[in-house]
Amino acid sequence: SNSNQIFINGKSYEVDSWTNVTPKIISYIGKNLHLQKSHPLSLLRERITNFFYFHYKNNRGNPLFSVYDNLYPIVTVEQNFDNLLVPEDHVSRNKSDCYYLNSKYLLRGHSSAHENELIQSGLDNFLIFSDVYRRDQIDSSHYPVFHQVEGVRLFLRHELFSLNPDAEGSIDVFEKGVRTETKQEVHTYDAARVVEYSLKSSLTALVRHLFGQNAEVRWVDAYFPFTHPSFELEMKFNGEWMELLGCGVLEHQTLVKAGVEDKIGWAFGIGLERLAMILYNIPDIRLFWSTDPGFLNQFNVSDINTNVKYKPISIYPPCPNDISFWLPGNADEFSDNDFYDLVRTVAGDVVEQVNLVDKFYHPKKKLYSRTYRIVYRHMEKTLTQEEVNKVHRLVEEAAERSLEVKIR
Ligand code: PHE
User: Fold this and answer.
1) Per the record, GO CC terms (predicted)?
2) Which residue has the least CA distance to atom 7 on ligand 1?
3) Positive/negative CA dihedral, 252, 258, 264, 266
4) Residue among 141, 71, 66 nearest 107 (CA)
5) Which atom of ligand 1 is nearest to the CA of 246?
């Protein structure tokens, strides 16, 4: 029957025990902020694209990288995880972290979900700009939908060692060796080092292109299931190191899964909101969804390299309200993200943050309690206490109804 199906863009998805996507989240599909004229995410997309177009040309003088910016966000578990060698029991697969349509389909959690199909189609150098979806905490830098740019570059042996044509005969890309901290078992040390150097120099140059030559950056070792070695790039911002991106040398097995045996390459993934917030001084991630001309007009510039600094229209006061409840009997099935999603659905963008402020177990009642502080703050006006109370009551009612909690 129809009640057991979700319809999105004319396609139906069978509801099962994995289904946790909400109508609110589905409503973000197709918004494509990164393609919206004079939106800060769109400006940033153009600047990143230009960097790659100008810095990397093929031997006919054309841009080396192809750009994909409108790939459909509903992907399979295979695309989002299996193709990327994410272990069966890895936390990133959990229902509490992803928006599943059902056990087979989900909203992509990262642009890496498209690496396999694009590599399989024969591409060696490409960028993907896309909206990605993750269940997460609520604060000024987290939103369940955000945007990423992914970059992939693959090399054949002669491309990797093209600067040293004399050495081409004597330097190999592949060997049957051992995995170390700096390379995979199938790669030679030389090849792994050259790819790592190409990756790091490209990304350092990109960050300097965006933030200026004096940007202070550092490399930190990291782990991703589909790259080795893996790194994160951090930048000093307001005296603190901020993580900007994840990257690494692609696991050879991910290429083999895409039908490529003779290449080695790198990949990176960057969150665009984080970058745009630093670049344009945007203080709250909800602003990216604002349709207020007072926000958008500030980014209506004719030169994409204009150094826009966002000026807040004005600051409206925060209204904190606490909510406390007893969890239902099956308390271990409850995740904080279940509550955060409910708040998003019911209260929407008037919520600035939600923080867990207290949890305890009542041994006599044999019940678990949670208290969250919800900070209500409108982006464009002052909220009255009456308005806040009304929304807060809706949140309480919805929590009792759909999470089966008991308000204390
Ligand atoms: N997909 C990773 C993330 O979203 C980032 C990444 C991309 C890491 C490519 C390595 C290579 O966190």
Assistant:
1) mitochondrial matrix
2) 269
3) negative
4) 71
5) 8
Pocket test for ligand 1, best of 110, 153, 232 (most atoms within 8 A of CB): 110
Ligand 1 atom index nearest CA of 230: 10
Q: How far is CA 348 from CA 106, 353, 385, 391, in A?
A: 22, 11, 17, 10
Using omega within 30 degrees of 0 as the cis cutoff, is the peptide bond preceding 229 cis? yes
For 386-402, the pLDDT digits (tens) are 999 999 999 999 999 99
Residue 169, pLDDT above cutoff 70: no
Task: Provide the pLDDT confidence category of residue 333 given band limits of 50, 70 and 90.
Answer: confident
Q: Is 193 exposed, middle or buried (0-12, 13-18, 19+ CB in 10 A)?
A: middle
Tens of pLDDT, residue by residue over 92-139, are 999 999 999 999 999 999 999 999 999 999 999 999 999 999 999 999
Instruction: Give the list of residues 6+ apart from residue 54 with CB closer than 8 angstroms, or none.
Output: none
Contacts for 135-138 with beta carbons within 8 Å, 24 or more apart? 135/20, 135/96, 135/97, 135/98, 135/99, 135/337, 135/340, 135/341, 136/97, 136/337, 136/340, 137/336, 137/337, 137/340, 137/354, 138/340, 138/343, 138/344, 138/351, 138/353, 138/354
User: How many degrees, rounded to 5, is the angle at CA 83 between CA 78 and CA 88?
Assistant: 70
CA–centroid distance, 6 to ligand 1, in Å, is 29
Please name which of 73, 52, 76, 51 lies closest in space to residue 64, comparing C-alpha atoms.
52
pTM to 2 decimals? 0.88
